[in-house]
Amino acid sequence: MTTALVYDPAFLNHDTRHHPENPDRLRVILSALKQDEALWAKLKHFSPRPVSDEDIMRCHSHRLIDQVRDLCERGIPFVDLDTAICPKSFDVARLAAGAAVVAIDQVFNGEADNAIALVRPPGHHATSSRAMGFCLFNNVAIAARYAQVHYGADRVLIIDWDVHHGNGTQEIFYRDPSVYYFSTHQYPYYPGTGAANERGLDKGEGTTLNIPLAEGTSRSVHGEAFIDGLRSIEKAFPPDLIIISAGFDSRRGDPLGGLLLEDEDFAEMTKRVMDIAARDGSGRVISVLEGGYNLDTLGETVRTHVEALSS
Q1: Is 164 designated active site?
Q2: CB neighbour list of residue 271: distance below 8 Å, 6 or more residues apart
Q3: Which positions ≥6 away from 109 have C-beta within 8 Å?
Q4: Of 177, 154, 150, which Cα lies nearest the Cα of 280?
Q5: Whole-angstrom Cα distance, residue 163 to residue 214?
Q6: Backbone angles phi, psi at 180, to 5 degrees
Q7: ∠ CA(147), CA(8), CA(135), 5° rounding?
Q8: What confidence category does residue 35 fall into, taking pLDDT thresholds of 50, 70 and 90?
Q9: Where are the domains of the chain?
Q10: CATH class of the domain comprising 3-309
Q11: What are the Cα distances from residue 16, in Å, to 78, 150, 217, 233?
């Protein structure tokens, strides 16, 4: 498999100071990837471009764009108690969403079989009208809409294995039958959404699947739930494109999570996703970094995921 890696050192300019979501996350990931010289040489490297206001407004209100821009220009250090920003954060957030968009381009143009966008800030908590949970704009949602508009993707499956429920992604597509949102996550936990009875509304009913997991759920139970969810989705919704909200805070030992996955579990989940994509979506998978805050383990966990993408 040919895997594209989309990254820009500008992502380090999102200065969050003493915060779990900080530039060292990307530094340890890149270090682990580069130390695997064979894997690093195998990847195709691409730079992102900023998304336009039009791209963002397919998922977010113009008021949110103005708010984030204004807070950054004024040097306000926080959007809310959780979400740190700096004067460069607005431009970096546009570039992060742009990395996901460039990843879409590569898989639809045939430059790569799949792609990973190593970005910050993350995105899956950003709702249509609110930045929250370390997130400014919803990178995977913007990428999904971009794929629909520019490449005619009829059925986009978003798979979110972050320890936190992606409330923003769910909200944006909750009434939309063309985008299926599937999440495994710790529950009850931040942000408080993601109950099993949240299944979508109106025409979108049945295209949201939440599998809430109690803190300390075993690896085997977690993995079986993930596989069962994928099987049920594939029968009802064979996707043209799969986007992974790749949060690695569901790994054992993460300071912001209480789930117990190991590196090999992320490799196995990645392979399962790729199998579905090969059957239904011409192999098109893009992965976009979300959470993951244990700097001692994060690099190797992401390296394992990228290795599985490229195998």
Answers
A1: no
A2: 308, 311
A3: none
A4: 154
A5: 11
A6: -100, 130
A7: 65
A8: very high
A9: 3-309
A10: alpha beta
A11: 9, 34, 31, 37
At 165, list the tokens: 């429920």
Say what the alpha-carbon torsion angle 87, 5, 165, 217 is, to the nearest 10 degrees.
-130
pLDDT band for 280, please (50, 70, 90 cuts).
confident
**Phi/psi zone of residue 207: left (φ > 0), alpha (ψ -120 to 50 degrees), beta?**
alpha
What does the pLDDT look like over 92-131, one tens digit per residue? 999 999 999 999 999 999 999 999 999 999 999 999 999 9
pLDDT at 281 over 90: no
299 token code pair: 């690099």
Residues 94, 8: Cα–Cα separation, whole Å: 12
- The token pair at 149 is 């508009």
Rounded to whole angstroms, the Cα distance separating 93 from 125 reads 13
Residue from 14, 60, 124, 125 carrying the catalytic annotation? 125
Secondary structure, 3-state, 144-185: HHHHHHHHCCCCEEEEECCCCCCHHHHHHHCCCCCEEEEEEE
Check residue 289 and give its pLDDT.
99
- Count of positions (residues) in the chain: 311
The rounded distance, in Å, linking the Cα atoms of 234 and 243 is 14
